[in-house]
Fold:
Amino acid sequence: MSDAKDERRPAGELEAAVMAALWSAGTPLTPGQVQSHLDAGLARTTVTTILTRLHGKGAVERRRQGRGYAYLPVREVQDAQGLTARRMHSELDRETDRETVLARFVAQLSPDDEQLLRHLLEAPEQ
Structure:
């Protein structure tokens, strides 16, 4: 018998799939519509839970549609990179000692990533 833990998807995979469905639609979708866009064989209740969590994280907006909601990505989260940035902000917002978190994050960057971050911080805002 296989361990259920071994069958779990990597963290964020389902969220990324749901977001991809929303991005490709370009219009607000209900959980049932998102479910029909996915090949993951997920129950509508699972899709609803994922959308509710994404809403709680500020990655999607929801609009009342009938008795439920239709969801769409927030303006800042229009692609996978925007979703990753939103996750990083969410994690940082949970911490009270932001300085230590940022210092440890920077200390663990590769030299190439550190150089890229320096370049981005020094670049004039567009």
